[in-house]
Design goal:
heterodimer, A: mainly alpha, B: mainly alpha
Chain lengths: 142, 230
């Protein structure tokens, strides 16, 4: 069988893969430098909100994902229908992420509220054990 | 229309025409399409793991600081090098992925020697990554680098035990993907060297296993994000 690529296309694809490699390496280095700068220079005492830094990390990771999926996994060069059938189901992950992390934050909030009221949980537990237990107040009910 | 028996990609003239049947509208073979669908399902598995990590972390009032947890470096005992070692691991995995892309491209050119050469480098990269991960797990479990570490039931970072459990579960699940990927890469490399794909007339198997290997690299980007950066 003959080559499935002509020589020009081959040379061009090899070049774009090395370009993607440089991008991936540079983004990773910038991420680590940003983390270290934040740790040692910008906020050594760890008092500031990390919202900006974390936002940068997420955007940088998505950019890396674009290079890996688009260039290495060749999705950029595939038929549009194939790219869509792979990528569209991943839209569900957006809601998956928001819903679950939201729920997690709500749990933390509940824990804080719970801890701020130390007496009520204890009394409540005692009350529950009295009625739920097998031997508790059986005599009184009959 | 004649039945297509070949496993190599089929090429209908236009995309619209392809939906009329007789060819693949996606312009890929059955095997490659199924590899893609497997990877989509695997992406959901990893997403579920990473999102549960996010959920449990969000629900906890204290958590570990990655700059403090991941600060050890092999051969540099006692050094405080936040994110140093994991950056090397990340770079190794990216390079390994690149080597396998090169193997796929040489496969398109029917260059057997090129495929075997780049595939071999890819295998070395994967094995190096596994070695790094073994070292990292070992020093964290035994705590011999900085006297800090974690197991499934304890950690020295003041974080809930779920921190160690999620770390070992998720990096372990990813590491198992790397391990199986290295095994597949070895099989492909040996088969390429034996001339199996040359006789078959195409190197599509290199592409399919390559997709899996890049996916492992892709997952690492998000494991790196969740555990080491955020």
């Amino acid at each position: 069988m003959a080559h499935s690529l002509d020589h020009e296309t081959y040379k061009q694809q090899v070049r774009s893969v090395w370009v993607a490699t440089v991008w991936l390496s540079v983004i990773t280095v910038v991420e680590v430098v940003a983390a270290l700068l934040w740790l040692y220079v910008i906020d050594p005492e760890g008092k500031m909100s990390k919202l900006l830094l974390n936002g940068f990390f997420i955007v940088a990771s998505l950019l890396k994902a674009y290079f890996i999926v688009g260039e290495f996994m060749h999705v950029r060069y595939e038929r549009r229908a194939l790219a869509l059938t792979i990528l569209v189901p991943l839209v569900f992950l957006i809601w998956f992420l928001i819903a679950f992390v939201w729920e997690g934050a709500e749990w933390q909030n509940n824990r804080k509220v719970w801890n701020a009221l130390p007496d009520i949980p204890a009394a409540h537990q005692h009350h529950d054990a009295g009625h739920g237990g097998d031997h508790g107040h059986d005599g009184g009910k009959h | 229309m004649a039945t297509v028996h070949t496993t190599s990609p089929i090429n209908p003239t236009t995309e619209a025409e392809a939906w009329d049947g007789g060819g693949s509208p996606f312009n890929v073979s059955y095997g490659k399409l199924m590899m893609w669908y497997f990877l989509v399902s695997d992406a959901f598995t990893f997403s579920a793991l990473l999102i549960s990590y996010g959920t449990i972390r969000a629900s906890s009032q204290v958590w570990a600081d990655p700059n403090h947890v991941f600060n050890a470096m092999p051969f540099l005992h006692g050094w405080d090098a936040p994110l140093g070692f994991v950056s090397i691991m990340t770079f190794i995995l990216i390079l390994s992925s690149v080597f396998v892309v090169r193997a796929v491209q040489e496969g398109h050119m029917m260059n057997k020697k090129g495929v075997v050469f780049w595939m071999f480098l890819g295998i070395l990269g994967g094995a190096a990554f596994l070695g790094c991960q073994a070292w990292e797990w070992h020093h964290l479990i035994t705590g011999y680098e900085h006297g800090h570490g974690m197991t499934l039931y304890s950690n020295t970072f003041g974080a809930p035990n779920s921190f160690g459990q999620l770390f070992f579960l998720i990096t372990g699940f990813h590491g198992f993907h790397v391990l199986s990927g290295v095994v597949f890469n070895i099989i492909v490399c040996v088969q390429a060297a034996m001339g199996v794909y040359e006789r078959r007339g195409h190197y599509e198997m290199v592409e399919k296993i390559g997709l899996y290997w890049h996916f492992v690299d892709l997952v690492w980007v998000f494991v790196f994000l969740a555990f080491y950066l955020l």
